[in-house]
Amino acid sequence: MRVAAIDIGTNSMRLLIADYEDGRFKEREKHINTTRIGESVDEEGIINDDAIERNVDALEDFTELAREKGCKQIWAVGTSALRDSKNSGEFLQRALEKSGVAVEIISGSTEADLGFMGVLEGIQDKDENILVVDIGGGSTEFIVGNKYGIKFMKSENVGALRMTEKFLKKDPVDKIEYMSMENHVSNEIDDTVGEICRYNIKKVVGIGGTITSVAAMLAEMEVYDMDKIHSSIITYPQICELLKTLKRLKTSEKMMLNGLQPKRADIITAGVGILEIVLRKICFDRMIVSEYDNLEGLVSRKISI
């Protein structure tokens, strides 16, 4: 059966079109649009009119594409920015009227759960404990578990767009502003890291736009290749070197980097910074990149109901 799943994230809206048969994915294609629904949500508490309009239009485009491709079902979820905004109801109503799809706002724990389910769809060894890290625009999800179930999950309000808006005002990044962000992220995730380190984690898997962008930049990928990114390895020394480079570049220069979507250039330093802090604090020197994420998890859950 051909189905579609849409994730309305703080920074980007993503679409998965997939053929799902006999309990597994046969074919997949993904589309992304940097729609920034979370623009100013952290500061003002509401989604501004421009962001609502952008995202309603993008949702309509994605649903039309899904229908043209023959999708029998279309599911859509909203995450951090929609959870936090006071006027998310206005967006939901306008989105339904224009696209015909009812968007479900999911909790941080559900977002983490779907991300973990998606990762399990794309890995071979599912017996050992893994940590899944999903760095989004508004939040970062941490999930520990294996094929027998999830043992720990936590959503922290530290994301690439949120941290950029809150701390990184100058271009290129100012050292003092970066240190303030680093201290904030470190303090916010301290308790979560303490919980994670109680488990016997064998590997760390990364999902989400920040982490796939890191893998694409390290590979200097001119055209993004989902299959080459999936199961690739990024190491802590590579992340540190990349972060050092990003800190000294202006946004206009970052936009020219192979592997990085130009619309992500202004928030990538914060995203890579969060990734560096996480790996340093959990004492892991490498991460496996997964192109199976909460979109695949959403399809898997909906079909199994």
Automatic annotation (TrEMBL):
Its EC number is 3.6.1.-, 4.2.3.4. SUPFAM superfamilies: Actin-like ATPase domain (SSF53067). CDD domains: ASKHA_NBD_AaPPX-GppA_MtPPX2-like. Keywords: Hydrolase, Lyase. Pfam families: Ppx-GppA. The keyword Hydrolase applies. The keyword Hydrolase applies. Residues 17-301 form the Ppx/GppA phosphatase N-terminal domain. InterPro entries: ATPase_NBD, GppA/Ppx_hydrolase, Ppx_GppA_N. GO terms for molecular function: 3-dehydroquinate synthase activity; pyrophosphatase activity. Belongs to the GppA/Ppx family. This is Bifunctional 3-dehydroquinate synthase/phosphatase AroB. It comes from Peptoclostridium litorale DSM 5388.
